[in-house]
Amino acid sequence: MSELASESASTARAITDVAGAAWAALATVRDPELDAPVTDLGFVASCSVSPEGHASVRLRLPTYFCAPNFAYLMVADAYDAVRAVPGVRTAEVILTDHFASDAINTGVAARAGFVAAFDGEAVAELGDLRKSFLRKAVMAGTDQVCRPLLAAGTPPGELADRTLGDVTPSPELGRLRQRRAELNLPAGDDAPLVIDPETGEGVSGNSLPLHLRRARLTRAGIEANTGMCTGMLKHRYALQEDHQ
Amino acid sequence: MYTHNGEKYFVVDSHMHYWNAAPSNWVPGAEQYAKGWIECFHAYQGLGPPETHWPIEKFQSYTEDDLMKDVFTDGYVDVAVFQPTYLKEWYKEGFNTTERNAALGEKHPGMFIANTRFDPRDGDNGLEELRRNVERYGSKGVKLYTAEWNNGSRGYKLTDPAAYRYLEAAQELGIKNIHVHKGPTIWPLDKDAFDVSDVDRTATDFPGLNFIIEHVGLPRIEDFCFMATQEPNVYAGLSVVIGGLMHARPRFFAKVMGELLFWVGEDKMTFGSDYAIWEPKWQVEGFVDWQMPGTEEFSDYPRLTTASKKKILGLNAAKLYDLKVPEECQLPPEAGTPGAADDAQLVT
């Protein structure tokens, strides 16, 4: 009896570990528009892994009409992330309460791609869309990293001469480097702090003030959207209030 | 009119609705979309103060009396601009049609402006309907919802040749103001449906029309601001900005207002309650009381003066719609702070 009980406890622990790893994997999946993990945004309604290694994930979004292309990316990314967790043998990721749930869920399950999932309604996969929003994330991240430097008295013009390695490490700097690396933009210590997210070239001179203004604007936009989306999700699913 | 601390504010609600989203108006077979649409609107209402939330049943089909009380009696609005949204694939008689709005407006002369709408995918019949509506209701503006589903199509762009044909016709009919509302679907779906570059080009090609971008292009405020600063005939419609952010997310509201004041300027921002999503009363009161926070985070944003608030709440829209403003609500010519013209030089 005791051997069986011990074995059962060990199995339970293993399942819990795998479920924890699956959740951690979902935390690497971001809403491309909001540049935040789906776990933080409250978009993961549930995540479980069966003793046989079948992962079951339910995603939910703030509205029935959230943009289907971004929704698809999140479901597909969640599938890839969970499927790669050691101990997960099969995975099912289901988007609930969305006008395009069927097309998205079926398309992701079939690993068929976006064009196939939305037959006749799309002409290309979503790589370019994802990249264009990563560039916005780089702009917003530039404001997050540069604003404290400016507040501390750094003359704006001097930012053009700074490199990433000149800046004291912070979570914001780490995130900026990561987003730049994802776009294959310079992200090492000797790379310029302020770059054009299209070309990777350093921004300096007359272009710098406008670039920093746009960085601030982009961050304000993403923050406002995040505030609105999380507020609507809360209303939709009667959740406790989060804090901005 | 709203009077506060001895100041009189002429209030134009430049974006509001009189819809019918009751289940009896849902198209059989499309109930899930009709239900999903109104529930989405209802979730937006959740961003307003709790005491202003309505049960979903009232929200689906509020009455004429509700509207007149909320908007005019309690809400301080002097003139309200109906912005129709048809959605006839989901709602049998339409969600919020020109006819339905105008029928209410005709009972209350001088209180409403009945805008109409068009859909460039409706061909010659749609052009004829536009002509009839303008003649019958005297519309000076149209509301365009570019993500509307129409006979298998999931949306359109303003730069589509058919849209240009309609815009040319609208201009000939005397339409001045194009209120644009972007939505989540468009063809092809792999592109960003909220992209505003089509508005940019269209505004350049139709300098005689004003383009009021409702919800300031949300969720693409950054693209909208950068476009608007370069186009003299592009305006920021504040519906959703005040209703969705001022109460629920005050810090982000301040940032968005700061960005709009910097890039677009107070002369080109117009208040809209988006009623019945939100009642105008708390929005008008809160906006007049609102100040840019004094902390460092907001230190480089422009400030709002009383004159700025008068422009945004009504005087700017009154100009767009040639409304007569009572003497006591007008500003002396030098009042207010300059718009964004100087800042715009950064971009050119």
Q: In words, what does this structure look like?
A:
The complex is a heterodimer of chains A (244) and B (348). Chain A is mainly alpha-helical and 244 residues long. Chain A has helices at 2-26, 38-41, 68-83, 101-109, 114-117, 127-151, 171-182, 207-237, and strands spanning 30-31, 36-37, 44-49, 54-59, 90-95. Helix content of chain A is 52%, strand content 9%. In chain A, the strands form two sheets. In chain A, strands 3-4-5 form a three-stranded mixed beta sheet. The model of chain A has no long low-confidence stretch (mean pLDDT 93). Chain B has 348 residues and is an alpha/beta fold. Chain B has a single domain (9-344), classed as TIM Barrel (Alpha-Beta Barrel), CATH 3.20.20.140. Chain B has 13 helices and eleven strands. In chain B, the strands form three sheets. Chain B has a six-stranded parallel beta sheet. In chain B, strands 3-4-5 form a three-stranded parallel beta sheet. The longest helix of chain B has 15 residues, at 31-45. Chain B is globular. Mean pLDDT of chain B is 94; it is low at 338-348.
How would you concisely characterize the structure shown here?
Chain A has 244 residues and is mainly alpha-helical.
